[in-house]
Amino acid sequence: MTDFAALNASRAPLLVACLCAQWCRTCDGYREVFEHAVSALRDAGVEGMWVDVEDQADALGAVDVENFPTLLIARGDDVLFFGPVMPHAPTLTRMLGAALDDQLSAGPAAMDACVLELPQRLRRLR
What we know:
Distance between the termini: 32 Å
Helix content: 25-40%
Number of helices: 6
Radius of gyration: 14 Å
CATH topology: Glutaredoxin
Number of domains: 1
Order of helices and strands: HEHEHEEHHH
């Protein structure tokens, strides 16, 4: 098993933002799963954010979220993943483990400029 805390100690934190909506019942059930997974990896440098796409629309800019839950995973300003996910704990755990092991990487060609700027805008919410 990888020692994520040691591996990530000197690197920028991993930002994991779940973009959902207050009215979404799927998101309601997923929030506990998300918060538990992020909490379990806090010592490894994982920072979680729950972002309501309506209440915090200004921070999203022109990013269009079509399906819930949608995750953003970024290290520093580098977006590693952006897209909808199945709302299951094993899926989230696998994705976070891959990101912490540097095995999750989506090149900038896969995302538009609005998504690439999203980590900076979301950090301003803190």
